[in-house]
């Protein structure tokens, strides 16, 4: 479904992602781990088109996306949830999700269009909000939501886009202990559908152990380990580079 080939980006003399080649299959969840500054979020930015690669390629479902900007990649089926929430802050919760549904259906982002002409869009948006347990707050402005609910809203918008590939960048960051299970349940449900490719950047190793079918480890921009969770977590390079334990 998704493949990166020798993906590299340089900022001056610094190589932030260094020749990473990896393929990701439908129906699987791959966790991307590594110490701070390892290149995890930058790797996501290269895949989703937020940053142009210095060299290398990104392929999705047999199509080379390398030269395409982020909006085009989204239309091809790459969905990205950011480490910091990306919402329409001054629109309601329901409007945020409705716009994502509308975009997926190719009806544009006509924010001022008459809502009564989009009954089917509203119904789908309401169903998604119920799924993420935000339906009681559908009429609230996105800006008024606490951080945990903003994270859930971003996941709802991502679900509304129905991408082939989900890129989750620390989806539970800043959430309270009570809020985390809702987002993790959503990710579990997406994984259970067996039709999406899921990539997850996450620092919480208990989350990684539970959700991941596979772990890849980045260190100083390079891919240094790749395999099943038990094997990778136990490997000397991960113990030293990620967990801070001498090999």
TrEMBL record:
The reply on keyword 4Fe-4S is no
Checking InterPro entries in the record gives: AAA+_ATPase, ABC_AA/LPS_Transport, ABC_transporter-like_ATP-bd, BCA_ABC_TP_C, P-loop_NTPase
SUPFAM superfamilies (alphabetical): P-loop containing nucleoside triphosphate hydrolases
Going by the UniProt record, its keywords in alphabetical order are: ATP-binding, Cell membrane, Membrane, Nucleotide-binding, Transport
Give a yes or no for keyword Lipid biosynthesis in this entry: no
Q: Which GO terms describe its molecular function?
A: ATP binding; ATP hydrolysis activity
Read off the Pfam families from this record. ABC_tran (PF00005), BCA_ABC_TP_C (PF12399)
**Ranges for the ABC transporter domain?**
2-245
Q: What is this protein called?
A: ABC transporter ATP-binding protein
List the source organism.
Answer: Pelomonas aquatica
């Amino acid at each position: 479904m998704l493949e990166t080939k020798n993906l590299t980006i340089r900022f001056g003399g610094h190589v932030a992602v260094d020749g990473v080649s990896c393929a990701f299959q439908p129906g699987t969840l791959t966790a991307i781990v590594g110490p701070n500054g390892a290149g995890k979020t930058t790797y996501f930015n290269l895949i989703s088109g937020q940053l142009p690669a210095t060299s290398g390629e990104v392929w999705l479902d047999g199509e080379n996306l390398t030269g395409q900007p982020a909006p085009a990649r989204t239309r091809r089926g790459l969905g990205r949830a950011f480490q910091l929430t990306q919402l329409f802050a001054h629109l309601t919760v329901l409007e945020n999700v409705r716009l994502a549904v509308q975009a997926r259906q190719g009806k544009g982002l006509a924010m001022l269009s008459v809502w009564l002409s989009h009954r089917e869009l509203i119904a789908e948006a309401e169903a998604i909000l119920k799924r993420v347990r935000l339906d009681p707050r559908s009429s609230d402005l996105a800006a008024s939501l606490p951080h945990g609910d903003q994270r859930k809203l971003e996941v709802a918008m991502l679900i509304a886009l129905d991408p082939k590939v989900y890129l989750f960048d620390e989806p539970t960051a800043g959430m309270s202990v009570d809020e985390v299970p809702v987002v993790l349940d959503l990710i579990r449900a997406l994984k259970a559908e067996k039709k999406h490719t899921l990539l997850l950047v996450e620092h919480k190793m208990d989350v990684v152990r539970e959700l991941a079918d596979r772990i890849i480890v980045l260190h100083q921009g390079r891919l240094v380990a790749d395999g099943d969770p038990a094997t990778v977590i136990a490997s000397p390079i991960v113990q030293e580079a990620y967990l801070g334990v001498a090999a």
